[in-house]
Amino acid sequence: MKVKEIIKWLENDGWYISRIKGGHRQFKHLTKKGLVTVSGKLSDELAPGTQNSIFKQAGYK
User: Fold this and answer.
1) Of 14, 16, 48, 57, which sees the most CB atoms within 10 A?
2) Distance between CA atoms of residues 23 and 21, nearest Å
């Protein structure tokens, strides 16, 4: 899965970008706790472990 697809998925679920520093984007949600960090260029392919980490941060695993 590409970074762009993960970001689109998060935004459709109500997450929004709270800050950007370099290639790292941090997302917040109005009702869910914590931050979700997505790193890399939009066209980069994410490793399976990184995808799992993002899903855990978003509360889906």
Assistant:
1) 57
2) 6
